[in-house]
Specification:
This protein is α/β, with parallel strands linked by helices. The protein has eleven helices and twelve strands. The strands form two sheets. An eight-stranded mixed β-sheet has the order 6-7-8-3-9-10-12-11, sandwiched between helices. The chain has a four-stranded antiparallel β-sheet with strand order 2-1-4-5. The relative contact order is 0.13.
Length: 341
């Protein structure tokens, strides 16, 4: 088995909200990402889902090393990005790109599309100066836009067209890995499918690895090979998309899928409605962070933070119920072994 193209190990990101002093006491921190472990294979699409504030976008920025982790390591093609100098990281970034949620705010309104794309080539020393404009036009055609649009400004495009320009900019440096952070949520419903199909075609044709951050579970089911579910900064379920959608192992995943029309609820099955609001990441509850909203919670859930445990070869869940089921299964196997003797 080949090594993953992107690997996050025990990655944590804390934001200090209040300084330490004699009067204020110890510093107060917000846990944006807490002990995340995630790997993405070459040519694979891994979706990251969860409620707003769960840490999805922070995880994407950590994967690209746009922000430094408080602890843990982020590796790209086996290289620890935290050990690179600024010049080495700049060279490595050519292989890692990001597509942002809002294409209008991510594009410079004062620059023509030709200048945006040729600036990427210039910054990375790609192509001769006299052929950069030609390459920029080819990029526009690759994302379904006409070459004649190359001298337009962003405000002269529709939302879907602007996102196509953003995709072209990300592809300009021939990356091997892309983080797509809610790439269609700011678009009209009528053009979302077009952009998703474009991204899927490009990903398949170029063999790109992709972290796809989204709220839309129907899109995730369509595009992702594996899915990671986040809650309160932690990855609480991770597995093949078909396994997670067919048999969610965590109560939070069960509720997410239940709330998505036509995705996770079978005919006649009641919707699972979560009670209360998510806890504050500044002062999360002890033990399992989801226990204050979980219908299965017991006193044991407050004792320790559950770790991801494999419930099958391709599916892991961080829930005490899964731990107990695994213990029961191992005990049953042990009893059968004794009887066989």
């Amino acid at each position: 088995m080949t090594a993953p193209i992107v690997e996050l190990k025990n990655v944590r990101k804390l934001y200090k909200l209040k300084g330490s002093s004699f009067l204020s006491g110890p510093g107060i921190h917000l846990r944006a990402v807490d002990d995340a472990n995630l790997s993405i294979e070459s040519g694979e699409v891994v979706a990251v889902v969860g409620e707003s504030g769960s840490g999805k976008s922070t995880l994407g920025r950590l994967a690209l090393h746009l922000i430094e982790p408080t602890s843990g390591t982020v590796r790209f093609k086996g290289v620890d990005l935290g050990t690179l100098s600024s010049s080495e990281l700049r060279r490595q970034r050519r292989q890692m790109q990001m597509i942002f949620q809002d294409p209008f705010s991510s594009l410079n309104p004062h620059m023509r599309i030709s200048d945006m794309l040729t600036e990427v080539f210039r910054a990375h020393g790609m192509h001769a100066p006299d052929e950069r404009r030609l390459r920029a036009g080819e990029l526009l055609e690759r994302v379904g836009l006409r070459k004649a649009y190359i001298d337009r400004f962003p405000h002269q495009f529709s939302g879907g067209q602007r996102q196509r320009v953003a995709i072209a900019r990300a592809l300009a440096v021939n990356p091997g890995f892309i983080v797509a952070d809610e790439p269609v949520s700011a678009l009209d419903v009528s053009v979302q499918a077009q952009v998703i199909n474009l991204m899927q075609d490009i990903q398949r044709d170029l063999g790109l690895a992709m972290m796809f951050i989204s709220h839309d579970l129907a899109v995730v089911r369509h595009i992702a090979d594996r899915v990671a579910v986040m809650y309160l900064g932690r990855i609480i379920e991770f597995g093949r998309t078909e396994d997670v959608f067919a048999a969610p192992g965590h109560p939070y995943t069960e509720a997410l899928l239940s709330s998505a029309p036509g995705v996770g609820r079978k005919s006649g099955q009641k919707r699972v409605i979560l009670q209360g609001d998510p806890p504050s990441p500044i002062s999360p509850p002890s033990g399992c962070g989801f226990r204050t909203r979980c219908r299965y919670a017991t006193q044991a859930c407050a004792q320790s933070v559950p770790e991801l445990q494999g419930i099958s070869d391709y599916h892991s869940v961080a829930c005490i119920r899964s731990d107990l089921e695994l213990q029961a299964a191992s005990q049953a196997i042990a009893r059968l072994g004794r009887f066989a003797l």
